[in-house]
């Protein structure tokens, strides 16, 4: 293997800066992740964009925040600003389980080692930088900053927190996928415009003195939220705020959002319109090495990189709008798709990787099968305020053709260097069920499904029904479980036709808002009847800027302000989770006693067999949940 020169990566040390012949650095990026120069890692994307605009960029990856802070000082004062991100995950989701137990590993650190980033990393890093370099602006970005840009509930402290700008003391925040606002900021920075004058850029947030007039820009209308202080006093006001934030975050012609917090006004400018094909291609076609920085070689592999190094992300965004999911809150509900040429070019790049053995691990995106899907008449989309394009029904204006995806699968298959290209991302099965999705006049969904099942399943296919109870599914913004059953029938027929044995792997969540204990017992019984034995399952975690988080904290649905019952105590959550494991001997007595107390001996018999004679029959196959799905 030919060693690449160190200058192929953005510099991590002063020695690397000097190797490039630079006498100073324009921008320093501080990240909670190790530096992997790959388009799936935000710091690499942002750094490469800055480089493409002619800026000299250096990266401080996973700095030590506990010592003399030498990591933060190694490049000195940047010419323009610091950029700060916690990394590819919210640092608290990264650190803690749904039961608030500290995780023992970190997928974004060499060797998977935990402990290389602080809790609330964005805040910790920014405070240190402001102490060391008080006059250098700090720009926040990444998922932690994006989802905490407004008053939000923090599950780990069990309290409302203000915009992360308040606690961090940063100068500005870019929310969502940051390429478009970043390019605007860079143009102004080069012209010498201070951050305090950058007030008319889309998709940024900043704090403004409440006693100073706030100018109007770009003919934006402004909508005011209940203040942070009002939210602290009244959970219903907080819930009502969320509806406004979610609606405005997903509109093409959105309003500017204002919220009073102390003696400041939080200003959130409207988002950019979704990136077009040329814009998103430009981001993916930058000169990434597609490798971790060489400094990590002796510390072991980076698990997150190992998982995606032979995968291709074909699109961004998700129009599902699921209540527990942060994808649309960060990436938007409208899907931005790369061109076929850009995707095929990346496949070619992967085949040159020194460790490539001919297998693509994933041709996908947030949901595997939303590539190239958008509104038939985009003027209707421009006026739309719905948080989901497929709940409670599929929008009649949504083009759900799977033809472009089927074609790209076939073209990747035709590449002589590819033995197999798998789909590792979760498939949105409801788009493939004719009873739910009526837009299948030319049979393209069936053609796609046959291509997928016969050519692109790596042993098993992941889908996410999430629950079996219609009441819970409505709160989740997911379709009825009956559509999963119809999908399974369709899937099994193709398997039978081609004599395949590739189990479906369904994802389910316990203790989600709107789910009661009986619902979990029903879920266990229904999945048992279908032949599933669930081994690893997900307990609900309330993450900022989701409908489910608002319900968990406030007790009401933000769109109706009506109460929704939610399991909140550890005991309630563990009780729901135990039903997944009805087949384990140590839980059988507990389940029977519990269901008898709930006056549901019928469910106990269905799950465990009659009390006199336990059913020892084994299900047809096991359903595993890998725990890797991002929510």
UniProtKB/TrEMBL annotation:
Residues 304-584 form the Radical SAM core domain. Residues 609-631 are annotated as: Disordered. Binds 1 [4Fe-4S] cluster. The cluster is coordinated with 3 cysteines and an exchangeable S-adenosyl-L-methionine. It holds the Pfam family DUF3362. It comes from the Bacteria. Keywords: 4Fe-4S, Iron, Iron-sulfur, Metal-binding, S-adenosyl-L-methionine. [4Fe-4S] cluster binds at residues 318, 322, 325. Its cofactor is [4Fe-4S] cluster. GO terms for molecular function: 4 iron, 4 sulfur cluster binding; catalytic activity; iron ion binding. SMART domains: Elp3. PANTHER family: UPF0313 PROTEIN YGIQ (PTHR32331). Belongs to the UPF0313 family. HAMAP family: UPF0313. This is YgiQ family radical SAM protein. It comes from Spirosoma sordidisoli. The lineage of its organism: Bacteria, Pseudomonadati, Bacteroidota, Cytophagia, Cytophagales.
